[in-house]
Design a protein that fits this description.
Mor_transcription_activator, c-mor_Regulatory_Protein, 5 helices, 111 residues, DNA-binding protein
Length: 111
């Protein structure tokens, strides 16, 4: 393994540890608890995903994409009003989600 790969791996786990610790501090947890949580999660990732090659998309928006795909999967061509009620958004929002999902799927097919 190259030296630059070792450095990148170390930086990733260190960034995860530090970021999680900072988030915990925003919830007013004790500093030592925040550090322990950050370290524990970084260790978990290293232990459970070490050796794997994982690529993270730069524009990752999990919640939005997840809901968009749920809407798309439930869409039958005529149930926009029902989906708007179910997901608590406007009919226009449902149409936009369906169009986003279609565009995302087209992009994946072309790749």
């Amino acid at each position: 393994m190259s030296k630059s790969m070792k450095i990148a791996r170390h930086e990733l786990l260190q960034d995860i540890e530090v970021h999680i610790s900072l988030i915990c501090k925003e919830f007013n947890l004790a500093d030592d608890v925040c550090e322990q949580i950050g370290t524990s999660i970084a260790d978990f990732i290293a232990d459970n995903y070490g050796g794997q090659v994982i690529s993270f998309p730069k524009n990752f928006k999990w919640r939005t994409d997840s809901r968009t795909m749920q809407i798309y999967k439930k869409f039958n061509g005529t149930n926009i009003r029902e989906l708007a009620k179910e997901f608590g958004i406007t009919e226009s929002g449902i149409r936009k989600a369906i169009n986003r999902a279609r565009k995302n799927l087209e992009t994946k097919v072309k790749a």
